[in-house]
Design brief:
422 residues; Rossmann fold; 8-stranded mixed sheet
Length: 422
C-alpha cells in the first residue's frame, strides 16, 4: 500500500482553524521527514520540516505522535508544520494581502531523517482560506474614509468593530476578515500610506477616525448602541485615543498597544497630544546589524513626556490589554499596567489584562508563524520583535479566543465562552 497524506478538513480550511494531518500506508515504525511549504503573494517561500516515526501499524497521526529532535520543532505539536514556517528570505514576515484568495499549502513526506530529503513517499495540497463562504467584502470610500467592511452571512445586525494595524500603513484586511467569519461586522481602516491618505506618519486627526465610527454606527448591518475597537501596536494607541475623545465606543481591545501617543502628533479640535520622545542612543544593535529598540522610547510618567500619556480615564468603555511579555518593540506590559492604574485612580473599571510569557510583538491570528525580526519603517533597519515560537503560537490561539469573547460579551451581550488564560 502506497503512503498517502490524510487531511481534515480535506481540501480547504480557514486560516485560523486547526488542520488535522496524518500519514497512512507507511512501514511499521518507519522514519520519515514531513515538510510543509507555501509561497506568499510576492513569491517568497516559507518552509518547515519535522522528523517522525510511524506507529507499529504504519500510521502517523500528528495529533498523537511527537516530532523527534532535528527538525523545525519537536514534541507533540499537531499544527507545528504551520506555525513553524520560516521564510527563506531573511527578515520577511508572512502577511496576506488579497484575502479573496487562499494560501496554498504543500505537504510532502520523505523517507528517513537525513540532511538531504530521501525518496518522496507522498504529497498533498491544501488551501488555507481567509473568507468564509457568505462573508461579504465591501470596499468603503465614504467621505474621507478608506477602508474595507466585512459582513458575516445573514441579515444582521452584527456587533461592529473597527480594526487598526500599526506603522506598516496601507490597508491590511486579513485580521478583520477572519474576525468577520466569527460573526462580527468588521471595518479594516487605513489611516496612512494608502491611496489619497497622507504618505507619512507625521500627524493624525481624530476627526478622520470619528468619521469611521459614525459610518459604522449608522450602518444598517451594525448593531448599536456602540462599537468595538481592535488595535495592534501603533493602531493600539490610536484606539486608546479614539476611546478617550470620541463617542460611540463600548469596548476597546489592544494587542501590544501603548497608552502614550507614539510616532506622530495627534490632533482633535483644539487638543494636541505630542508623540512620546525617542532616544536613539538607547537602541542596541547586534553584530549582525539587527536592532533592539525596546528601550528607545522615553517614560511617559516623567517630565514633559507626561503630555504624551493619552487621557484614557475619559473613556466610557471597557478595555482588554493583550500583552506579549517578550515584546521587544516597546514595553507593552508596562503600558497596560500604567493604563490600568490610571483608569482605577479615576474610579473607572479595572481593565482585563492577559499576559503571555514567551510571546513577542506581532501577536497575530492563530497559526501565523512568529516573525522574530523584520524591517521597521521608522527605524529603517531590521529590528527584533521578540517571542519564542512555540509559546508565541499558543499565545496567538488563546488571544484570538479572548478577543472574540471580550467583544461578544460587551457588544452582543452574550456570555463569554473564553478559554482559560495561559
Amino acid at each position: 500500500m502506497a503512503a498517502s497524506i490524510r487531511l481534515s478538513p480535506a481540501g480547504r480550511s480557514l486560516f485560523d482553524e486547526q488542520l488535522a494531518i496524518a500519514v497512512q500506508g507507511l512501514g511499521p515504525r518507519q522514519q520519515v521527514t514531513l515538510r510543509a511549504s507555501l509561497r506568499d503573494e510576492s513569491g517568497e517561500l516559507f518552509q518547515a520540516s519535522a522528523h517522525y516515526r510511524a506507529g507499529d501499524d504504519g500510521e502517523l497521526d500528528l495529533a498523537r505522535c511527537p516530532a523527534l529532535p532535528g527538525g523545525s520543532f519537536s514534541g507533540l505539536e499537531p499544527m507545528g508544520l504551520l506555525w513553524a514556517l520560516q521564510p527563506q528570505r531573511p527578515f520577511w514576515r508572512l502577511v496576506k494581502r488579497d484575502v479573496q484568495s487562499p494560501f496554498l499549502l504543500q505537504l510532502e513526506v520523505f523517507e528517513g531523517h537525513g540532511e538531504r530529503p530521501g525518496r518522496l513517499l507522498a504529497q498533498a495540497q491544501h488551501e488555507r482560506a481567509f473568507l468564509r463562504d457568505g462573508v461579504r467584502r465591501v470596499p468603503v470610500r465614504h467621505g474621507r474614509i478608506r477602508a474595507t467592511l466585512f459582513l458575516p452571512p445573514g441579515s444582521g445586525p452584527f456587533p461592529g468593530i473597527i480594526d487598526l494595524y500599526g506603522t506598516g500603513g496601507g490597508l491590511p484586511e486579513y485580521r478583520a476578515c477572519l474576525l468577520a467569519n466569527h460573526g462580527f461586522a468588521v471595518l479594516a481602516l487605513a489611516f496612512y500610506s494608502y491611496e489619497d491618505l497622507p504618505k507619512e506618519m507625521k500627524e493624525f486627526h481624530l476627526e478622520y477616525f470619528e468619521e469611521a465610527i459614525n459610518y459604522m454606527l449608522q450602518h444598517t448591518q451594525v448593531k448599536g448602541p456602540g462599537i468595538g475597537l481592535l488595535g495592534h501596536s501603533k493602531g493600539g494607541d490610536l484606539c486608546v485615543s479614539m476611546a478617550s475623545f470620541l463617542k460611540g465606543i463600548t469596548a476597546t481591545a489592544l494587542i501590544n498597544g501603548s497608552v502614550a501617543n507614539v510616532g506622530a502628533v495627534l490632533r482633535y479640535k483644539d487638543i494636541t497630544i505630542p508623540p512620546l520622545g525617542i532616544n536613539r542612543k538607547r537602541v542596541k544593535v547586534s553584530e549582525s546589524g539587527i536592532a533592539d529598540i525596546i528601550d528607545a522610547l522615553n517614560n511617559p510618567l516623567e517630565g514633559p513626556d507626561q503630555q504624551s500619556f493619552i487621557p484614557l480615564e475619559k473613556a466610557e468603555c471597557c478595555f482588554l490589554f493583550i500583552v506579549g511579555q517578550d515584546d521587544h518593540n516597546w514595553k507593552s506590559e508596562f503600558f497596560a499596567v500604567e493604563g490600568s492604574k490610571r483608569l482605577q485612580a479615576h474610579g473607572k473599571e479595572k481593565p482585563e489584562i492577559v499576559c503571555y510569557p514567551g510571546a513577542g510583538h506581532y501577536i497575530e491570528p492563530p497559526f501565523f508563524p512568529m516573525c522574530a525580526a523584520s524591517m521597521h519603517l521608522l527605524f529603517g533597519k531590521p529590528v527584533i520583535w521578540g517571542g519564542e515560537p512555540k509559546a508565541h503560537c499558543k499565545a496567538q490561539i488563546d488571544a484570538w479566543q479572548q478577543i472574540q469573547a471580550f467583544f461578544h460579551k460587551h457588544l452582543a451581550g452574550k456570555p463569554s465562552g473564553t478559554s482559560s488564560k495561559l
